[in-house]
Design brief:
Mean pLDDT of chain B: 90
Structural class of chain A: mainly beta
Radius of gyration of chain A: 30 Å
Shape of chain B: globular
Largest sheet of chain A: 7 strands, antiparallel
Strand content of chain A: 35-45%
Strand order of the largest sheet of chain B: 1-2
Order of helices and strands of chain B: HHHHHHHHHHHHHHHEEHHHH
Mean pLDDT of chain A: 86
CATH class of the largest domain in chain A: Mainly Beta
Radius of gyration of chain B: 23 Å
Oligomer: heterodimer
Number of domains of chain A: 2
CATH architecture of the largest domain in chain A: Sandwich
Largest sheet of chain B: 2 strands, antiparallel
Distance between the termini of chain A: 33 Å
Largest interface: A-B, 82 and 81 residues
Number of strands of chain A: 24
Low-confidence stretches of chain A: 349-368
Shape of chain A: elongated
Number of helices of chain B: 19
C-alpha cells in the first residue's frame, strides 16, 4: 500500500513539474524572423522619399507588432521613425501608423519595436510595411538587408573614399556557383544624377561583358551597400571574373588600398537561387519592389495557447504527446527511487563490492 | 534500496528518457550531423577510409584542385578511396535537400541562404568530418547496411540508435565506476542518475556524431584504470594489459577527445602495480608509450585539426583555450545550447546551475578530504581525469561541452559524492532529494522550455 502511494506521489510530482515547465509556453514568438547571422549588409540612411519596407504574408491572426533592426550610420542623434503598415503592397490602404524614438547605441544594432492595435483577421493576408524618418535626425538610421544568396567574397566596409566619377576595376574568384550580385559600399549615390553601371567580364582582355547591371533606384543610397544584381552565372564556381564599375560624377565608393598602396574597391559577392516558397515577398523602396532581398525584421501576432499547441502538434508530427508520456514515466521512476523510497535515512553499503582488497595499502577508505 | 532493483529501475528510466530525446530532436539538429552522415554513407557503400586522392592548393587558381570541386568534396576525395566525383556531389546534394525538407535552415540561426545550395561549402566553408578516425563511421555504416536504410533521412534515423545505445552504455559504465569508488549504494545510483539526466548528455542519445562513441571508449578506459587501481598490488595480468591496449586502439580509432582518458588509464595501469612487479610495470609503461606514439602519428596522418602543428600554434591555442570566452563557451554548451549551439538557456538558469555546480564541487572536494565510504584514490583519479580533459580542451583551443563527455562517468561520480556530502547527516537524504528534484526540474526546463520551443516554435525565415 505504502509503495502504491509512493508511486502515486512520484507520478503526481512528475506531472506537476511538466505542467509548471510549460506554463507560459504560449508567450508570443515571432511569426516571421528574417535572419542573417552575422549581419552582412546595411541599407544606408533612410529617407522620406522612398522609405525602405517589406511585403509579407501573415500566417496567423492578430498581427500586433513589427520589429526592425536599426543601426546608426552617422552622428549619435535620436530621431523619430514612423512605421506605416498597409494592406497588400506599397500602394495599399494604410492600416496602422506608429511613430517612435528607437533606441540607439553607436556601433550596435538595436531592434525598434512598433506595437499597434492587433489586426484580428490578419491570417492569410498580405501586408506591407515601411519605415520613414519623422525628423531629420532619423535619416542617420539604417535598417539591415538580407540579400538572397550565399556570401562568397566578404570584404569589410572600407576605410577611405574612392575617386568620384571614375571607373573602378577589380577582380574576384567566385566562391560558389550561381554568382548573382555584387554589393559595394557607397558614401552617396543619386541615380537620378547619373547611373552607376557594373560590367562583368570572364577575360581581362574581353571587350564585351558577360553581365551588366545598372543601379536604377530612384533615390539616394547614403552610407550603405549598393547591390548590383544580374542573371546568375550558373557555372561560376572557382572562376575568376573581372569587373568595371562606372560611378557617376557625384558618387564616391568606399574602398581600401592594396599592398602597393593603390586604392581599390571593397565588395561582397552573392551566390545562389531564389527559394520556391516563402512568406516573404521581398523588400521595397518607395513603390519599387526588390524581390531579391529582404529587410531584417520580425513580425509578431497574438498567440493563444490553442494555436501554439496545434503548431507544436503539427511540427512534431504527433510525437509530442508520446514524448510527454514517456518523460512523466521516466521521471516518476526516478522520483520513486530517489525521493519517495522507503529506505531508512542511513545509506546502505555493499560489503562484497569490488573495493580494494589489500587493506594494508588501501588506507584511503574512510570510516563511517 | 535494493541494488539490482534500483539499477533496473534506473536503466528503465534512462531508456524512457533517451526515447524522449529520440522523439523530440528533429533531424539534422545534432551538431555537424550532415558531415558525419556523409562519411558513414560513403563507408556503407563499400568505400574504405583510405586510398583517396591527395589534394593540392596552388599559387595560380588554374592549378588549384578547387577548380575541380568544392573544398568539402576534395576533403572527402582525399580520405575515402574509389569515390567518383558524381557520388561525392550527389551525396552532399541529397543531404542538403533533406535538410531543406526538414526545416534545418529555419532552425539554425546562422544557417546561410540555401536557395541553390548543393554542396557543403555553401553551408559551412572548408569543413569536413572525413579527417576523423573511422571506427564510429564503420559502425554507423554497418547499421545502414543491416537496416537497409534508403536516403539520407532514413540513414540518419537509423544511425541515431547507435547514439541511443551509447547513452545507455555510458550509464552502465558510470554505475560500474561508482561501485569502485564508493560502497554507498545510494551514491552509486545517484551517479547513474546524474549521468542519465544531464540534459546535454541525454540529448546525445539522439545524435549522429562520433562523440557518442568517444565518450563510451573514454568511459571504458576510466573504468579499466579504476579497476586496476582497485585490485590487489602486483596483479597486473597480461589480459588486463591487452584489454587496455585494445581500448587504446579503439580510442585512437574514434576521436582525439579520448586522449585524456588514454593517459589517465595508462597512468593507473603503471601506478597500480608500481610497488610490485617492476618488469610488468615497465612492460605496461612501454606499451602505453608506444601506443600513444602510434596513435598520435595516426591522427597526424589523418590531418586532424585537433593537433597543433608547431609550438607557436600550440601556444596560440592555449591562449585561446584559456580565454574567458572559451571557458564561457564550454560552460554554455555543457548546460544547454540548442539549434547547433545558436540559442541558449535563460541566463538566470545558467547562473543558478553554476552556483549549484560550485556547491557540489565543494562537496566533492570535502569528500576527498574526508572520504567516508568512498575511496580517496579513486576520487583523486576522477578529479585527475576531469582536469586532464579540461586541459586537453584548452590545448585544442576550441570548446564544446560534448568534448567533456568522455570523462562524464568521473564527473557524475564526483557530482554524486559531492551531493551526498552537502549538509549535516540527519538532513542529507532531504538535501539529496532536493537536488534530485532540482536536476529533474532542470531537465524539464531544458526539454520543454528550451529544446521544444527553440526547435519547434521559433523558426526563422
Amino acid at each position: 500500500m505504502k509503495s502504491t502511494i509512493a508511486w502515486g506521489y512520484s507520478a503526481l510530482i512528475a506531472a506537476l513539474i511538466l505542467g509548471v515547465s510549460v506554463i507560459g509556453l504560449q508567450r508570443s514568438r515571432p511569426m516571421i524572423d528574417v535572419r542573417t547571422i552575422p549581419l552582412i549588409t546595411h541599407h544606408g540612411g533612410i529617407n522620406p522619399q522612398s522609405p525602405p519596407g517589406e511585403i509579407f504574408e501573415c500566417s496567423q491572426a492578430g498581427l500586433r507588432r513589427i520589429d526592425v533592426l536599426l543601426t546608426l550610420v552617422g552622428q549619435t542623434l535620436r530621431g523619430n521613425v514612423t512605421m506605416t503598415l498597409r494592406a497588400n503592397s506599397p500602394g495599399g490602404v494604410v492600416l496602422r501608423e506608429v511613430t517612435m524614438k528607437p533606441p540607439v547605441s553607436p556601433g550596435v544594432p538595436n531592434w525598434a519595436s512598433f506595437e499597434f492595435e492587433p489586426i484580428l483577421d490578419s491570417a492569410g493576408r498580405a501586408f506591407h510595411f515601411s519605415i520613414a524618418p519623422a525628423d531629420e535626425a532619423a535619416t542617420k538610421l539604417s535598417p539591415w538587408v538580407r540579400y538572397h544568396g550565399q556570401v562568397g567574397r566578404n570584404d569589410p566596409w572600407g576605410d577611405r573614399f574612392l575617386e568620384a566619377g571614375a571607373t573602378h576595376k577589380g577582380d574576384l574568384i567566385s566562391a560558389h556557383a550561381d554568382l548573382r550580385a555584387l554589393a559595394f559600399p557607397v558614401e552617396s549615390m543619386f541615380p537620378a544624377l547619373g547611373r552607376a553601371t557594373l560590367s562583368i567580364f570572364d577575360d581581362p582582355d574581353a571587350s564585351a561583358p558577360i553581365r551588366t547591371s545598372t543601379l536604377e533606384l530612384p533615390d539616394e543610397t547614403h552610407l550603405g551597400w549598393a547591390f548590383f544584381a544580374f542573371e546568375p552565372i550558373a557555372e561560376s564556381r572557382w572562376k575568376r571574373y573581372y569587373f568595371e564599375l562606372n560611378a557617376p560624377e557625384h558618387c564616391r565608393l568606399i574602398g581600401t588600398q592594396d599592398a602597393s598602396m593603390r586604392p581599390i574597391p571593397v565588395l561582397k559577392s552573392f551566390h545562389g537561387r531564389e527559394l520556391e516558397r516563402s512568406q516573404l515577398r521581398g523588400m521595397t523602396r518607395g513603390s519599387l519592389k526588390l524581390p531579391d532581398r529582404d529587410l531584417v525584421f520580425r513580425a509578431w501576432c497574438e498567440d493563444p495557447s490553442s494555436a501554439v499547441l496545434s503548431r507544436l502538434k503539427e511540427r512534431t508530427g504527433g510525437a509530442l504527446w508520446l514524448a510527454a508520456l514517456l518523460w512523466v514515466a521516466a521521471t516518476t521512476i526516478c522520483l520513486r527511487v530517489f525521493v519517495f523510497s522507503q529506505d531508512t535515512d542511513e545509506a546502505e553499503t555493499e560489503d562484497s563490492g569490488p573495493q580494494r582488497e589489500d587493506t594494508q595499502t588501501a588506507v584511503t577508505l574512510g570510516e563511517d | 534500496m535494493k541494488t539490482r532493483r534500483t539499477r533496473s529501475l534506473l536503466l528503465i528510466a534512462a531508456v524512457l528518457h533517451g526515447l524522449v530525446y529520440m522523439l523530440l530532436l528533429p533531424p539534422w539538429m545534432g551538431e555537424d550531423e550532415p558531415w558525419h552522415l556523409e562519411y558513414a554513407h560513403h563507408i556503407s557503400t563499400g568505400h574504405a577510409p583510405w586510398g583517396g586522392v591527395e589534394m593540392y592548393g596552388a599559387e595560380r587558381e588554374e592549378d588549384d584542385d578547387r577548380r575541380l570541386m568544392p573544398l568539402s568534396q576534395l576533403q572527402v576525395r582525399r580520405r575515402i578511396g574509389g569515390l567518383s566525383t558524381g557520388e561525392i556531389r550527389d551525396t552532399q546534394a541529397r543531404i542538403i535537400q533533406s535538410m531543406r525538407d526538414e526545416d534545418f535552415f529555419r532552425r539554425v540561426d546562422f544557417a546561410p541562404w540555401h536557395g541553390g545550395a548543393t554542396n557543403f561549402d555553401q553551408i559551412q566553408d572548408a569543413f569536413t568530418a572525413t579527417h576523423q578516425p573511422p571506427l564510429y563511421y564503420a559502425l554507423a555504416a554497418l547499421i545502414m547496411k543491416v537496416s537497409g536504410a534508403d536516403g539520407p533521412l532514413e540513414e540518419l534515423r537509423h544511425v541515431r540508435w547507435l547514439g541511443f545505445a551509447c547513452y545507455l552504455a555510458m550509464i552502465a559504465l558510470t554505475l560500474s565506476l561508482a561501485r569502485l569508488v564508493t560502497k554507498d549504494l545510494a551514491v552509486v545510483a545517484l551517479a547513474g542518475f546524474v549521468c542519465a539526466w544531464l540534459p546535454m548528455h541525454a540529448r546525445q542519445a539522439a545524435v549522429v556524431n562520433n562523440d557518442v562513441l568517444a565518450k563510451v571508449v573514454g568511459g571504458a578506459l576510466l573504468l579499466a584504470g579504476a579497476y586496476q587501481l582497485s585490485i590487489k598490488q602486483g596483479r597486473l595480468s597480461l589480459a588486463s594489459v591487452l584489454t587496455l591496449l585494445v581500448l587504446i586502439v579503439f580510442a585512437f580509432a574514434t576521436k582525439t577527445t579520448t586522449l585524456a582518458c588514454v593517459v589517465c588509464a595508462g597512468f593507473a595501469y603503471v601506478a597500480a602495480p608500481a610497488r610490485g612487479d617492476a618488469g610488468k610495470t615497465l612492460l605496461a609503461a612501454l606499451a602505453c608509450g608506444g601506443v600513444l606514439a602510434l596513435g598520435y602519428g595516426y591522427w597526424r596522418y589523418m590531418h586532424s585539426p585537433s593537433l597543433p602543428t608547431n609550438w607557436e600554434d600550440m601556444s596560440e591555442r592555449i591562449g585561446r583555450g584559456l580565454s574567458t570566452t572559451n571557458l564561457e563557451e564550454l560552460w554554455r554548451t555543457s548546460i544547454g545550447a540548442f539549434n547547433w549551439y545558436s540559442r541558449d538557456l535563460p541566463s538566470g538558469l545558467s547562473s543558478a546551475l553554476l552556483f549549484m555546480a560550485s556547491l557540489i564541487f565543494l562537496g566533492a572536494l570535502w569528500r576527498i578530504y574526508s572520504p567516508k565510504r568512498s575511496d580517496r584514490v579513486m576520487l583523486l583519479m576522477c578529479f585527475a581525469a576531469v582536469l586532464a580533459q579540461v586541459a586537453m580542451i584548452t590545448v585544442r583551443g576550441v570548446s564544446a561541452g560534448r568534448y567533456l563527455f568522455p570523462v562524464l562517468p568521473a564527473i557524475a561520480v564526483l557530482a554524486a559524492v559531492g551531493m551526498n556530502a552537502l549538509g549535516p547527516i540527519m538532513t542529507r537524504k532531504r538535501v539529496v532529494s532536493g537536488l534530485v528534484i532540482g536536476l529533474i526540474a532542470y531537465d524539464a526546463v531544458f526539454l520543454w522550455r528550451g529544446l521544444l520551443v527553440e526547435q519547434y516554435l521559433v523558426w526563422g525565415d
